[in-house]
Amino acid sequence: MQIDLLPRERSTATLNLLILFGSLLAGLLAISVVFALSGVNPALAIFSIFKGSFGSWYGIKETVTKAIPLILIGSGLAMAYKAKFWNIGAESQLLVGAIFSTWVGLNWGPHLPAIVLVPLMFLSAFIGGALWGMVPAVLKIRFGINEVISTLMLNYIAAEFVKFLVVGPWKGATKGGYPYTDDLPAAAILKQFPLSRISPVLLSVAVAGALILGWLVYRSRFGYEIRVIGENTHAARYSGINFFRTLVVLMAISGGMAGLAGAGELMSIHHYLSYPDSLSAGYGFTAIIVAWLARLNPSFTIISGLFFAGIIVGGDAIQISMGMPAATVDVFNGMILVFLIMGDFFISHRVRIRRGRTVDA
Amino acid sequence: MDRIQSLEMRGISKSFQDVKANREINLTVSSGEILGLLGENGAGKTTLVNILYGLYHPDDGQILINGEPVRLRSPKDSMRAGIGMIHQHFMLVEKHTVLENIALGYAEAPFLFPQRSLRGRIRELSAQYGLDVDPDKPIWELSAGEQQRVEIIKALSRNADLLIMDEPTSVLTPQETDELFDILRKMTSGGHSVILISHKLEEIMDICNRVMVLRKGQVTGEARIEEVDKGKLAVMMIGRQIAAAYPKTDIDPGDAVLEITGLDVDSDRGLPAVRGLSLVVRRNEILGIAGVSGNGQQELVETITGLRQPLSGSVMMKGVPLDHADARKAHTLGITHVPEERIKYGIVPNLLLYENSVLKRHRDEPFSNWIQMNYAVIKDHAGKLVDGFNVDAPSINIRVKNLSGGNIQKLILGREISGGPDLLIAAHPTYGLDVGATEYVRKQIIELRDKGGAVLLVSEDLDELFMVCDRIAVMFEGRFMGQVTPDSCTIEEIGLMMAGSTLQEA
Amino acid sequence: MLDIIVSVLTRTIIAGTPLLIATLGEIIAERAGILNLGMEGIMSAGAVTGFIIAFTTGNPWLGMLAAILVGMLLSSLHGFVCITLRANQVVSGLALTMLGLGISGLWGKPYIGRPLPQRMPRLDISGLSDIPVLGDIFFNHDWYVYLSVLIGIVIWFLVKHTRMGITLRSVGENPKAAESQGIPVNRVKYLAVMTGGGLAGMAGAFLSTAYSGSWNEGMVAGRGWIVIALTIFALWRPGGAFLGAYLFGGIFVLQFMLQPLGVSPNLLAMLPYLSTLVVLLIYGLSKSGQRRMSAPATLGEPYVRGGR
User: Fold this and answer.
1) Which long-range contacts (CB under 8 A, 24 or more apart) does B59-62 make?
2) What is the ipTM metric for this complex?
3) C2-293 has which CATH code?
4) What is the pTM of this model?
5) Comparing A191-200, B171-180, B371-380, C160-169, which segment has the lowest mean pLDDT?
6) Judged by CB atoms within 8 Å, which residues 182-241 of B form the interface with A?
C-alpha cells in the first residue's frame, strides 16, 4: 500500500467549509485528549467553556467586549497576511496606539469636548499603530530584514517602553505606588451599553473597520495589488506594481487597526495606561488565529473574533468554576490553530491511497 | 563495479500527463566518447538524461551498462553505477566552500574533519584534468566556470565514468568554454565518456564525436560528427520542411513604433547579454527574432518591457525614452508583453480567471478608478476574452491554475492584445501548446499586425517565424547576425546565422 | 567592589545558561531550514515536565530527561505540520507556543509554589572551585552550566568539522543540492527540529529544577523569544550563541543591579531586542553584508521533493 499526496485541482466552497469544520472538530477532539491526560473531564470542560461564554447574558456581553479588539486586530492581520506579510507585531502596534492616544488624552483632553477628543484619540492611535507597523515594511523592502523577526523584536521594545513610561515619566500623581498613568479625562471615556462593558461607538468602529477592510481586500484596486503580491511576486513585478508603496500602506493600515484596538481598550475599559499585559491580554497573538479562522477574509473576523472571544471568556469562567489554570485557553487556541493549518493542507492537496505495487519503481 | 565501457538506453518512453516527452528512444555511448544531444527546448533532452540520472522512471524501455540491464531508481543508484550529472543550474551550496560542497553526501569522506582529508583527493583530480580551483573558497566567490569545475570534481571524486552535462556552456564566457572543452578532452582520453546536451551547433561540431538529434520527443537523426556540418544539423534540429507562410495581406509598414539603438544589457550573472544592438519595429509589421535561447533574447525582452535596467543605449517607444526599468511606464506607453515563463510571470494562479483578465491593465479605465476595481466591467471583459479568444473554461469564476497551458496562453494573449496595443512583445508564444492552440495564437498575432499593431516575436521555432513574420533578425551572443525576409532566405542560412556566422558568410 | 563583580559575573553565567542551551537548539533547527517560533512554549513544557518528574522521583536527572523527551515530542508536531504538511512555519510555531504554555499551565497547576526537595546538584571540582574569584565565577555551578558549555562545544564541532554538520547546513541552504547527493532531506529536517526541541526542553528543566527549584506559570518569562533573537544575533553560529547568551544574560542581571543607580531596568531590557535589530540593520545596509550574514537560504520554506 502506498499513500500519495497529490495537488488538488479543484476546490469548492462546500469542500473548504467541510474541511474547516472537520479541522475544528479534530482540534476539539485533540483538546479532549489533552484534557483527559491532564485529569480533566473533557466533555465537562468544553461544555463549561461554551456555557461560560455563550450560555448567559453576562457571558455574551463579555464575549462581545473581548471580541472588539480581536476583530479590529484580526481584520488588519488578515489583510497583511493576504500579501504574505507575516505581521506578528500587532501586540506592540496596539501598545503604540495606546501610547499615542494616552498622550493626546492627557495633554489635550482637559480642554476638549468629547465630540472632538474621542475622534482625535482614535486618530492618534491609528497613526501610532500605523507608524509602528510601517517600520517592519521599510526594514523588509529596504534592508531585506525578515518581517517575522522585526515585528517580534518590536513587540518587546514597545512593551518595555510602555513599562518604562508607566513606572517613570508618565507615572500618575494620583495612583500612589502603582505603575499607572493618571486617569484620562471624562470626555475621553466611551459610553457603554447599560449593565455591560460594551461601548456602542467602539463596537461600530470594529464592525465597520472589518467590513471596510474586507471591501478593500476584495473590491479595491489596492486590495487587488495586495493579493497579486501575496500570490505571485513575479507577476506583481511583471504588472508594474509598486511593492514599496503598497506594502508600506498595507502595514500602516494593519498596524493602525491594532492601534485602534489599543485606544479602544484604553477609552472604554481601562481609562489609564498601565502594564502591557494588563492592557492587552495577548490580543495581538490571539488575533492571528482569528485571522486564520476567518480564512484571511477581514470581514469574516467578525465571526471568528466572536468565537475566540468566547473561548477567552469561557476560559475565565472555568478558572473559577472548575479551578482550572488560566493557561487552559492557550491549549484551546494552540490546538485549534494547529488543526486549522493542518486542514489547509487538505484544501490544496488530496490524499490517494493505492494498494499493491507501485507503478513507478 | 566495473568501469562503464558502454551504456545503452533501449526503447525509452516517458509521458507526463498527456505529453509524450520521450518516444522509443535508443541511445548508446561508449568509453572515450563525447555524444552530443541536440534539440530545441522541449525536444525531450532533459527528460532523457533525467531518466539516466534516476530522477525519472521511464514508462517503458531499459538501460544496460556493459550489456547488463540495470535499474536506476534514484540518483544514488546512478551515482553508484558510475553516472554523474552536471545540471544546468549548479547543485552547489553557495555559502559553503568548495571542499564542503564536495564532502556533501560523499560516502568516502570521513566523519571527522572531512574537509581536511578531501584536500588531497581534489588536488590529485585537479592536476590530472586541469581542474583549477581553490578548495577553500566559498562558492559564491567563484565564477561560473570555476563553479562548473567544482561540479566536475564532485562527479569525478564519486568515480563517475559517464558524465552528463546539461547545456554546460550556457553560463560560460567563450574563454571558459574553451577551458571546459580542454578538460572534457582530457577526461575522454582517460576513458571517461560524456553526454553533452546543447542547442549550440558550433559546440557540437567542436567537441563531440557523435551527435544525436531529438525533436518532439523522438530521435530525428544520429551521425558521426565527420558526416555532418552545421547546416545539416540545423535542418535535423528544426525539421525538414518549412511550412508555408500564413496568408497575409501585404501592407507596407507604417511609422516606427519602437526604436532601439546601441543597447547594452547584462544578464543576472553580470555577463554581457545584449551588445550594441539596434532595431526598429514599425506599425503593421511583425519582426521575428530567431536564435537559440540564451543569446540575449530574454534580456532584450525584459529591457523593452521595463523589467530590466539597460547599461547603455536608448529604447524609444513612440519617441518617448524608456530608460529606467519601469514596467508601469512601458505599459502606459502601449507595450504589452506575452512573457516567456507564462505561469511564473503572466498569471496569478490562485486568483480567479476574471481577476487575471486585467492583470497589469488593472489600473486602466474602465477597469478601475483611483480606489475601486470595477468588477462588473472586468467580468464582462473576461467573458469577452473567453469567447473572443477561444479560452476553454467552464466559467470565469475559476482559479486560473485549473486551466490547461494552452488556455492560459490564450487568455494571456487575449488580455495583451485586446486593448489594441501599439507594440506586442511575444516571447515563445506557442511553446508547449497543441496544434490547435498554436495556430490560433499565430493568427491572432497576424490580425493584430493587420490592424496596425507592431509585433516583436521572439521564438526558437523557425517554422513559426517563417510563417508569421515580415522580417526575421537572427540573434547570436547579444548581436544581430543579419536580418532577412522569409521569402528570400533558406533555412540553412538561418541555421548558419544561429550558429554565429553573419549574413554575408552564410 | 570585587564581591559585586564576582556576583554579577557568576549570575551572568547562570542567567545565560538556559539561553545558551535553547539557542543552540534553535540554531540547529534553523540551520536545517526550519524556523521554530515555539521555543517559549517548548521551554515552558520542559520546565513543568522536568519539575514534575524531578519532584515525584526525587531525581533531577530524570526530570531533565523527561523535559528533553517532551521537547522532542512537541517539536515533532511542529515538524509534522511544517515538513510533511508543508504548512506555514510562522503560524505553526505560534500555535506551538500557545500549546506549550497551555499544557504547562494545565499540568503544573498542582505543583505551583511547591519547593523541589532535590535540585540539580552542584559540580564540585576539587581544587578549581577553591580558587579565589575565578573559582567562584566559573567553577561553582550546577551540572547544567557545565553541560551547556560542553553541548555548545560539541555542537560547534559537529556543525563545523564533521560530515554531519555539512549535511545539516546544506539541507537548510540548498535542499535540492543535498538531495541530488542522496541526502534524505526531510529526515534530516525532522532530526534537526527534534534535537532543537529537546534542547529547548532541557533549558526549561534548568529553570525549574536548578535555577529556581520551583514551578510557576509564566516562569519562562519571554526567554523563548529572546532565544529567537539570539539565534539571529549569533548569526546562526554556535560560537556566537555563547557570546550572545552570556551578553543577554548579563543584561538580565544588570537590570536589577543598576536600578538603584537610576538606570531604568525597562530600557536595559530593550537592549537585546534593539541590538538584534541593529545587527540586522548593519548587515542589511550592504549587499555583501546581506550575503555574509543572511539566514539559511531556505529558512521557513517547505521543501517539496523533486519539485522545481
Assistant:
1) B59/B13, B59/B14, B59/B15, B60/B11, B60/B12, B60/B13, B60/B24, B61/B9, B61/B10, B61/B11, B61/B12, B61/B13, B61/B24, B61/B25, B62/B9, B62/B10, B62/B11
2) 0.87
3) 1.10.3470
4) 0.88
5) B171-180
6) none
